[in-house]
Amino acid sequence: MDLSSYENLEGIYAYQNKVNNNIYVGHTHNFKHRAYLHNSRFGAAPALVHAITLYGLSSFRYFILCLMPGSTRAEREVIERSYFDTLHCPYNIHAPGSTHPNAEGWPENFVSSFYVPVTIQTLSGSTIISFPTVKAASNWLGVGVNTVYSYLERGKALGGMFRVIPFIGGESMPEADVDRLQGEFLNYWKNFGGKKLGAAVSKSIQGKAVEVSSLDGNVLGTYPSINDAARAHNIKPATLRISLSRQSPNICGGLLFKKL
């Protein structure tokens, strides 16, 4: 992969061993320079360096998982850690197990869950294509990112055609098949799925009303929707929707939110 145009860009990257699918995830402020260090067997990634030496550089795929221009090191570390819960990263020997960063530590402008890499499969389990983020997958599908994330969380079939699952690696289908399946899905979603299934997802996430309480149990108010509750307490609606899609009640922004 030619990284010349990524020389001074910040973001998250990954190496995947094509032999055993083991992965290393890292962050950098200069993709080209960091790749040079890894490829030359330098840098603070001893397990990756050993594997490259053992298997050869040609046995590895290189991915740019997400671009984060202008980001700080702390912001990149948060997003980097978010991949450890989803990907099998044995080369990250310094990774903190499966510990996901605390939501209160996430940078304000990031919805960390949307930066998780995903694979799109047929209902029979054949891999169609993989993407570095949920956002990238939503662009390919022509479906809102919240909708895609909801189907990822619930393991449901999207449009009765695809499943969106955590990234598993492996080869994509031939380009012609990928384009054909994408076209079939876009046509289906435009004429049916986007109206009925999209509305069902929105309703299942949104709920009818939300009660907000302080952590000591004092009820602060009841709101007709997640959006209303989020805006009333200076929280991004998408962040609160994700929090409540995982469980209800749930803590977000230092308050307790409960779907009614």
UniProtKB/TrEMBL annotation:
Occurrences of domain GIY-YIG (ranges): 8-93
Keywords from the named record: Endonuclease, Hydrolase, Mitochondrion, Nuclease
Stored Pfam families: GIY-YIG (PF01541), NUMOD1 (PF07453)
SMART domains, per the entry: IENR1
An MF annotation (GO) of this entry: endonuclease activity
Protein name: GIY-YIG endonuclease
Taxonomic source organism: Powellomyces hirtus
Gene: iorf260
